[in-house]
Write a structure and sequence with these properties.
By secondary structure, the protein is α/β, with parallel strands linked by helices. The protein contains 7 helices and 7 strands, in the order H-H-E-H-E-H-E-E-H-E-H-E-H-E. It has a 5-stranded parallel β-sheet with strand order 1-6-5-2-4.
């Protein structure tokens, strides 16, 4: 059996080209290059109250964010003192070794396994996601996922566990 490869190559090339053109033209097309997520911080000068030093968005239940926003250590600690729910995006073993006091575990990599934890949390509750710090993007991914699920006040503590621990803020472990 003698297979001619040149006609097959032309068919594959032409169909790939047509598919790419249709994808490019379509309003629902799939991006060929994933756009990098730009992490927007809550602006300290505009979005923080003078009294509590926490984001204004957490002062009222009706003032929802337009996306999950990043916060600083100072803002995270203020939210901690205002009873926001902290969510640890790291795996359960890391959570077990140590976490922010009162934080719940919701490992991003095992989201489906742990998502039932969210059933008792109101969509209006301020949530703060965190992981190990600047080199870890699990808190960003989890924050975005929670925001997409309808949680209106999602904050991403960018400094995470490392900054919290280095500043001797309240921690606990399950060991």
């Amino acid at each position: 059996m003698n297979i001619k490869l040149i006609p097959i190559f032309y068919i594959v090339f032409a169909s790939s080209l047509v598919g790419l053109i249709i994808n490019f033209i379509s309003p629902n097309g799939i991006p060929l290059i994933k756009a990098e997520r730009v992490l927007n911080f809550v602006d300290d000068s505009l979005a923080v109250t003078d009294e509590a030093n926490i984001p204004k968005e957490t002062n009222t239940q009706n003032n929802a964010l337009d996306e999950a926003k990043a916060i600083t250590l100072k803002q995270a600690y203020s939210l901690f003192n205002k009873d926001a729910i902290f969510i640890d995006a790291r795996d359960y073993v890391e959570y077990e070794i140590g976490h922010i006091k009162g934080a719940i575990t919701l490992p991003y990599e095992e989201f489906e396994k742990y998502k039932s934890i969210l059933q008792s949390i109101s969509k209006d509750t301020p949530l703060v996601t965190y992981c190990d710090g600047a080199d870890c993007d699990l808190s960003i991914l989890l924050g975005d996922k929670l925001f997409e699920m309808g949680y209106k006040q999602v904050y991403i503590f960018f400094g995470g566990w490392i900054d919290w621990q280095e500043n001797n803020y309240p921690i606990e472990s399950l060991e």
